Amino acid sequence: MGDIREPLRELTECGLPQALEVMGERWAFMILRASFNGLHHFEEFLSELGIARNILSNRLAKLVENGILRRDPCPDDRRKIEYRLTDKGFDLLPAMVALRQWGQKYGAEVVENPVLVDERDRLPIGPTSIISHDGRILGPQDLALVERSNLGVRADGSRADQEGSPGLGDVIDLESLRRAKSAA
Amino acid sequence: MGDIREPLRELTECGLPQALEVMGERWAFMILRASFNGLHHFEEFLSELGIARNILSNRLAKLVENGILRRDPCPDDRRKIEYRLTDKGFDLLPAMVALRQWGQKYGAEVVENPVLVDERDRLPIGPTSIISHDGRILGPQDLALVERSNLGVRADGSRADQEGSPGLGDVIDLESLRRAKSAA
DNA sequence: ACTTTAAGTTTCATGGAGCAACTTATTTTT
DNA sequence: AAAAATAAGTTGCTCCATGAAACTTAAAGT
User: Fold this and answer.
1) How far is Cα A89 from Cα A93, in angstroms, rounded to an integer?
2) With a cut of 50, which residues of chain B have pLDDT below it?
């Protein structure tokens, strides 16, 4: 029972640390939100966010360095710099919206105005969700962690065990998720 | 053109700041991931994460204080404390997975093992997505920000304007999203 | 020419992060 | 029963990151 989560000790192979290296910095998401909202210039960010000048400078540089923002000098006014989201930056939209929605759900009195809507019908979006490979919306109950070598192997075991300790290396953990499932 | 984003100045009514107040702290998401992965005890987090003792103590306390983790003394071993995710904590799953997937997509060499799968078929999950109210997956192109009073009003305007400056107060901004759309 | 604006950099005071050692309460071992 | 080990902290100290304010440089506006 202690051994079952032994493989997790080497679970540095996860995108989260890499993501947090950039976006874990304070202000990173706030700057990103401002970018999503159409702010492009240093002084705009400055007055909008209430961040210190030097910190903003530093954070923008880091976001540019990490390919989340592009830094384009304005052709018409050569004092100005335009900071714009790259594709990599846009790909943070689901993470940002998910965070935002969570904050909204549990925050005291968040009214949200303006509202993020589907352009098609101009109605508010639903909750950002974890999706199966074939498009079903998944809850915590529907998730499991399996060894890479055991992908596709159902619980009843339509495929035989790989080498290694048998019975182990299958579902690694998520016992907490399961417990939450049965509790719900 | 400068005025069109004027309302954003008061855009403190967004869940993001509230979310970041808790989860913007360094280590918060790493602790959360560990929790998702079935770690429950102080010394487990400590050796798994490589975080300093005092910081871990502090962060756990804050997560408990914010209702993301529950702090249960173990009945069988009264030295031990169990830290477990609350429902509020589980609701951070989409945000965490989205971040993780982003880090995986752009991180150097992230292999991801064990793999997060759909329990049903044990196949890897798809990208965490922004969903419309009726279940369609939305991309950045499909999003708009509208005034709360103008919800449901299509671009062609099946509903008449509210009071206030006409033409304004409709789609607030997202010009950057649009530009990215036309560029794609 | 003078002033203003934009985007920074520099300086300095403060707060949070990290390391190591210490504490307290509870098992386990001898 | 006494000694050692374990679990979960706390305390003291150092140092880097954060933040406020002033200064810098270059380009526009008037």
Assistant:
1) 8
2) 1-11, 160-184
Q: Which of A19, A7, A41, A1 is nearest to A172 (CA)?
A: A7
Q: How many CA atoms does the CB half-sphere of B29 hold within 13 Å?
A: 28
CB distance B173 to B9 below 8 Å: no
In tens, the pLDDT along B61-109 reads 999 999 999 999 999 999 999 999 999 999 999 999 999 999 999 987 7
Number of domains in chain B: 2
Q: How far is the C-alpha of B6 from the C-alpha of A15, rounded, in Å?
A: 37
Residue B139 is part of which domain span? 131-183
Q: Which nucleotide is nearest to B46 (CA to C1')?
A: D8
In this structure, the answer to whether residues A58 and A80 fall within a common structural domain is: yes
Q: What is the CATH number of the domain that holds B44?
A: 1.10.10.10
Give the bases of strand D that a protein CB approaches within 7 Å: 6-12, 17-22, 26-29
A95 and A43 within one domain? yes
In total, the C-beta contacts within 8 angstroms joining chain A to chain B are: 354
Above 90 in pLDDT, residue A32? yes
